[in-house]
Design brief:
Layout lengths: L3 H24 L15 H28 L2 H31 L13 H20 L5 H29 L13 H4 L2 H42 L2
Helix pairs in contact: 1-7, 2-3, 2-5, 2-7, 3-4, 3-7, 4-5
Length: 233
């Protein structure tokens, strides 16, 4: 476990980094993009959230595989907390996407959701990972819960590349990079990448902060509970 002093240093650095990124995102000029206009600035938030969700899922499945090999409680705990934060960024990503679509593609209409292939595949992926926590809550035995949820987590992760990348690119969609549409990099100015790539790093830093806090909390909680049980046994 990382020391408290180093954790605080990294946490504060991430906060400063994100402050600079957000400030630059709103103040830097951007090119005029058809339909998107200034809402294109959402690129600095919406897309990095998806990258962060995928990074969190990688951390989660890594610890699930480790738990299947070693059967240690901490690996199961870390897998669950990484998946929890992955879901958080996933829900924030889909929320910013729905709002973005409303003020661009569906402006002047009552439409908020039209089952665009990427929207639908993302919603399915979030349900797949939500089921992971439903599954975990179904077992009282910690060892059985760890093994079964770890195996399911591996399955859930294998669906991610297909649902978030492969399938949406093969179907007609309003999203850039889909069938018949250019990739976002082809319709955006290189200046936007000066904020976009640091934003990805910053959001992953936020994941690390939240993940580390959750793991610290869970380990401390387990330690207190075990001490209480030992004192009363």
């Amino acid at each position: 476990m990382i020391s408290t002093r180093r954790y605080r240093l990294i946490r504060n650095s991430v906060f400063v980094w994100m402050t600079v990124v957000i400030t630059a995102g709103f103040l830097m000029s951007i090119p005029k993009i058809d339909i998107l206009e200034h809402t294109a600035r959402n690129l600095y938030f919406h897309v990095p959230m998806w990258f962060t969700m995928m990074a969190a899922a990688i951390v989660s499945v890594f610890h699930s595989i480790r738990h299947l090999r070693k059967r240690d409680i901490e690996s199961d705990l870390r897998a669950a907390e990484a998946a929890r934060v992955a879901l958080l960024f996933g829900f924030m990503g889909i929320t910013t996407g729905v709002v973005w679509a409303k003020v661009t593609w569906y402006q002047g209409t009552s439409v908020w959701w039209n089952f665009d292939p990427r929207q639908t595949s993302v919603a399915i992926e979030l349900m797949v990972y939500s089921a992971y926590f439903v599954l975990r809550s179904s077992f009282e035995d910690s060892e059985l819960r760890g093994r079964i949820s770890a195996a399911y987590n591996v399955f859930a992760f294998t669906t991610m590349p297909f649902l978030l990348y492969v399938l949406p690119r093969q179907l007609d969609s309003l999203h850039p990079g889909a069938e018949g549409n250019p990739a976002f990099s082809e319709i955006t100015d290189p200046r936007m990448r000066l904020v976009f790539y640091p934003a990805i790093i910053g959001f992953m830093g936020l994941f690390w902060i939240l993940y580390t806090q959750r793991v610290r909390y869970r380990l401390l909680k387990n330690s207190v509970e075990n001490r209480y049980l030992n004192d009363n046994s």
